[in-house]
Give the backbone structure.
Amino acid sequence: MRTFNHLTQEERYHIYIMHKKNISLGEIAKDMGRHKSTISRELRRNKGNCGYRYQQAHIKAQRRHIHKPKAIKLDEAMKRVSRGEGTRIIGAVIWRRITLFISQQKRASYGPLFIQNGLL
């Protein structure tokens, strides 16, 4: 299985310096031990009005990764439902977990005054 590593700020700085010296993408990639499409994608995605700047590129990349949807691990009951083996009991257990989770989220977001006054 392949593993993918995000570019570090140091690698972005390396790309910035070498790109500024008009070194080809293939040579930059070879020097860094990355594929040339990685370098090309980095330059294309993170280019600003003044061209590619490594600090700006790093911030843009971090912002993109913050908003990326996260994978959720399923416990055994949820796996059964997803396989179509769900029964009313499993469905009820999952429904209870979901409503409990939503309730906890509401309580955390509204704060103690709403809870104390019975508004939730």
User: Anything to note?
Assistant: The chain has two domains: 9-66, 76-116.
